[in-house]
């Protein structure tokens, strides 16, 4: 072990000695003895070289083993890269802890109905530096506005989204350091092939180490997510770029090996080396598998065939990791622990995920989780999971839904629209706020479409738009008298409801099946995995501004109800909630009607909650009428800048803004918040699934 560093860099097999190599050995003998004290991972000589046909070429000594590879430098750069990751983690933790401490103090000092005077201090920024950082770095898109709006080559081909300015800085530093480490070579060596061998060792070491963050950042149950409260969407972005670096370094590693081997004996030597070395064979398998991952993960391919891509992606990555493992293990290379750690992360996450799914969705008393699917107007489904065991819920979180009857083992992320307890009583007729009736075809939606109504249901009442509607079987089953979203600390949540907009694949098949049913409702079995996200409670803000685009309303409904419950209990600082929802037509209002009915019935909500509905594509003039109550409807597109500026002037205390919706809509809200972030205490939270 103590002499391993010198041997790794300079020793060569006896049968490949050359005059040049003897000179290198002599130089090594005269090298400073301090280097010998460095202890390196792995022990013993490198093995499984394969057969070398010629020993007398300049490249022969550097075509196999670790001859010419500077392992000491390799470990130095890897340690620097590790220190950079740990430094970034420490900085993120410090930022999060300070943010949480500030929010907690604000909540303690301002919660309750009679604390309006205390809110004034929190309305303003204590200085100008941090608001400027938020405006120009943390909240800033890469360019002027575009961030989550997809970059499209055509209507059918999407490349993906652009990283934010802060993420671009992080990724730029990561890429620059990896390039710099690869180029930090001893370029003045007399034998050019030794430089190639050095580059081969450097790229191989970096690729093996970068596998660790690549795998870790891809995991849904990445332990860094709850620790740092950084979204999975951000970690997924980092995962993709780490993976690209791994693939490029792997390909460069293989090219360097092939160049020296080719110079030793041409294509015949390459064939012989691959045929006689298990390590080389599996190394080539890993290179090909990872290269295939690189190509298949290209934006247009990934978005066009996502479900196929995901399954193929996992198989190719598994094959690539196995190839790297065998390549290192057969050759007795010291980078093997890196791959072992990556495998350990992946295996532990899958085991934890499996146990978690089974625990919440399978029990002796209730069997497997039952799922009720109800077709809704606007080509959407209300999907309610009746869980087998209680489940902890928090506003703003999402789950991955499994419906094997429609998508086998595949799962898809959805925001939780509603959560409650298992029904124990029959539902009651609900009386709603008296609003002026509007001449909308939504009033006749249920009666005109037999697939969306029950034949024997007689539950009727006013919706949150004042339109008479008919309760469906799903509502009668899943909306009992005591149904309510539990507080965040309450673990007794047994039903979880989602809204799935029919697109392609599973969601399209699910909607078509439910709509074809005589009652518009079907039952099946499935499972949910989660919850994920929901790190921001929003309860410490005096003013909460919620923007929703389309089905993104599911992310906001839970926040609204939960904040109102906390207002009633006196455990929230919130005195003003503004919900802004942009929908294509009034049919979409049916998606959350049964839950909005309950929200509008809550005590004290008139003093706290105001709802603004923007119908972008009304079918006729009478469909949208601007009301003067706490629920207002407007024709046309929503202008987030106008709304944010107005609420900024009329805000109570600090203001929290969150958005969930299409990319362009989210970008417009982000731009509006950036315009006012230096004028007062404003925080921005975005919910996005840019997979």
From TrEMBL:
- Identify the main location: membrane
> What's one GO-annotated cellular component?
plasma membrane
Task: Specify the protein's topology with respect to the membrane.
Answer: Multi-pass membrane protein
GO MF annotations in UniProt: ferric-chelate reductase activity
Q: List keywords of the entry alphabetically.
A: Electron transport, Ion transport, Membrane, Oxidoreductase, Transmembrane, Transmembrane helix, Transport
Q: Which GO terms describe its biological process?
A: copper ion import; intracellular iron ion homeostasis; iron ion transport
Q: Where are the transmembrane segments?
A: 75-98
FAD-binding FR-type domain sequence ranges: 363-538
Signal peptide span: none
- What PANTHER family does the annotation carry? FERRIC/CUPRIC REDUCTASE TRANSMEMBRANE COMPONENT, PUTATIVE (AFU_ORTHOLOGUE AFUA_1G14340)-RELATED
This chain's protein is named FAD-binding FR-type domain-containing protein
Q: Which organism is it from?
A: Friedmanniomyces endolithicus
| Lineage of source species | Eukaryota, Fungi, Dikarya, Ascomycota, Pezizomycotina
């Amino acid at each position: 072990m103590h002499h391993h560093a010198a041997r790794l860099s300079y020793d060569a097999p006896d049968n490949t000695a050359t005059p040049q190599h003897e000179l290198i050995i002599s130089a090594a003998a005269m090298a400073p003895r301090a280097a010998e004290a460095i202890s390196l991972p792995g022990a013993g000589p490198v093995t499984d070289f394969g057969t070398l046909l010629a020993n007398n070429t300049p490249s022969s000594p550097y075509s196999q083993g670790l001859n010419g590879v500077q392992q000491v430098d390799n470990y130095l750069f890897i340690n620097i890269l590790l220190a950079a990751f740990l430094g970034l983690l420490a900085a993120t933790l410090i930022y999060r802890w300070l943010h949480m401490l500030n929010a907690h103090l604000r909540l303690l000092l301002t919660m309750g109905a009679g604390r309006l005077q205390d809110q004034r201090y929190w309305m303003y920024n204590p200085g100008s530096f941090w608001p400027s950082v938020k405006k120009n770095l943390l909240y800033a898109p890469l360019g002027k506005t575009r961030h989550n709006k997809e970059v499209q080559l055509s209507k059918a081909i999407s490349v993906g989204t652009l990283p934010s300015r802060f993420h671009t800085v992080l990724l730029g530093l990561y890429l620059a350091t990896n390039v710099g480490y690869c180029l930090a070579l001893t370029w003045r060596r007399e034998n050019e092939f030794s430089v190639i061998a050095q580059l081969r060792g450097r790229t191989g070491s970096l690729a093996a180490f970068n596998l660790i963050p690549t795998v870790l950042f891809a995991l849904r149950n990445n332990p860094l997510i709850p620790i740092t409260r950084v979204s999975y969407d951000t970690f997924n972005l980092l995962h993709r770029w780490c993976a690209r670096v791994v693939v490029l370094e792997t390909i460069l590693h293989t090219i360097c090996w092939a160049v020296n081997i080719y110079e030793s004996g041409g294509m015949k030597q390459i064939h012989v080396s691959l045929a006689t070395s298990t390590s080389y064979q599996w190394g080539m398998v890993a290179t090909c598998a990872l290269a295939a991952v690189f190509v298949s993960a290209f934006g247009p391919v990934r978005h066009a065939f996502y479900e196929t891509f995901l399954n193929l992606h996992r198989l190719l990555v598994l094959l690539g990791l196995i190839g790297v493992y065998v390549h290192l293990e057969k050759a007795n290379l010291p980078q093997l622990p890196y791959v072992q750690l990556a495998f350990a992360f992946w295996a532990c996450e899958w085991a934890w995920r499996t146990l978690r799914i089974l625990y919440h969705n399978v029990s002796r008393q209730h069997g497997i989780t039952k799922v009720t699917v109800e077709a809704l107007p606007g080509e959407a489904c209300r999907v309610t999971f009746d869980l087998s065991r209680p489940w902890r819920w928090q506003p703003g979180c999402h789950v991955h839904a499994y419906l094997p009857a429609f998508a086998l083992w595949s799962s898809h992320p959805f925001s939780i629209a509603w959560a409650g307890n298992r029904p124990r009583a029959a539902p009651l007729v609900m009386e709603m706020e008296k609003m002026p009736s509007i001449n909308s075809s939504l009033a006749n939606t249920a009666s005109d479409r037999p697939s969306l109504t029950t034949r024997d249901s007689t539950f009727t009442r006013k919706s949150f738009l004042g339109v008479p509607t008919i309760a469906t079987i799903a509502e009668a089953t899943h909306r009992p008298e005591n149904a309510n979203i539990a507080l965040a600390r309450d673990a007794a949540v047994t039903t979880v409801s989602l809204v799935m907009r029919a697109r392609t694949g599973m969601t399209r098949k699910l909607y078509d099946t439910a709509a074809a049913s005589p009652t518009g409702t079907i039952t099946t079995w499935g499972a949910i995995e989660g919850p994920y996200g929901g790190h921001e409670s929003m309860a410490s803000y005096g003013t909460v501004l919620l923007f929703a685009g389309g089905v993104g309303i599911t992310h906001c409904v839970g926040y609204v109800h939960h904040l109102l419950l906390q207002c009633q209990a006196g455990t929230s600082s919130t005195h003003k909630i503004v919900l802004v929802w942009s929908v294509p037509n009034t049919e979409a209002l049916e998606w959350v009607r049964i839950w909005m009915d309950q929200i509008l019935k809550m005590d004290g909500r008139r003093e706290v909650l105001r709802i603004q509905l923007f119908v972008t594509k009304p079918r006729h003039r009478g469909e949208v009428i601007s009301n003067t109550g706490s629920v207002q409807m407007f024709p046309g597109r929503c202008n987030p800048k106008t709304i944010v500026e107005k609420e900024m002037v009329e805000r109570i205390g600090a203001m929290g803004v969150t958005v969930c919706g299409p990319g362009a809509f989210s970008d417009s809200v982000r731009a509006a918040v950036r315009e006012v972030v230096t004028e007062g205490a404003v925080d921005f939270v975005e919910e996005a699934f840019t997979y």
